[in-house]
Design goal:
This protein has a single domain, classed as Glutaredoxin (3-Layer(aba) Sandwich), CATH 3.40.30. 28% of the residues lie in helices and 18% in strands. α1 links the parallel β3 and β4.
Length: 159
């Protein structure tokens, strides 16, 4: 059965990363943006990373500029922003599209596995979150307004 671990993506420095390196870990995959009303969720995502990392949990951040052009910078700018503003220690990846013809294969898979409101596959906005189990299967999809703190119990259960 296909899963998240079957994909390869580029990290924020452009280096290829096979997601099978996260086999055995619970993942929270999030499309992020630096200039969004939800951007303060970076703090909550970092808190989840710190709280659960030692138990086999990882947040994976994927910058996306498809919603209101709220991630206009390049990867170096994004990395600097995440480090200096939110002290992000979780892995950040290269900027991607999550919708449309150029959508990253990982996101095509995530959206097909867990549809959104009213059965829609489309990602509606920045900070949509996908919780993935240790075997790479998508457990749940969370809306942008679902705060990191509010989904901590689901993470706890998956661990």
């Amino acid at each position: 059965m296909a899963g998240v671990h079957d994909f390869q993506v580029n990290d924020i420095r452009g280096k290829p990363v096979k997601l099978d390196r996260y086999n055995g870990e619970v993942l929270l995959i999030v499309n992020v943006a630096s200039e969004c009303g939800f951007t303060p969720q970076y703090a909550g995502l970092q808190a989840l990373q710190e709280k659960f990392h030692s138990r086999g949990f990882e947040v994976l951040g994927f910058p996306c500029n498809q919603f209101g052009k709220q991630e206009p910078g390049g990867e170096d700018e994004i990395a600097a922003f995440c480090d200096t503003t939110y002290h992000v220690t979780f892995p950040m990846f290269a900027k991607i599209d999550v919708n449309g013809d150029a959508a990253a294969p990982l996101y095509r898979y995530l959206k097909a596995e867990k549809r959104g409101l009213l059965g829609s596959e489309a990602i509606k906005w920045n900070f949509t979150k996908f919780l993935v189990d240790r075997g790479g299967q998508v457990l749940k999809r969370f809306a942008p307004n679902d705060t990191p703190e509010s989904i901590a119990p689901d993470i706890e259960k998956a661990l």
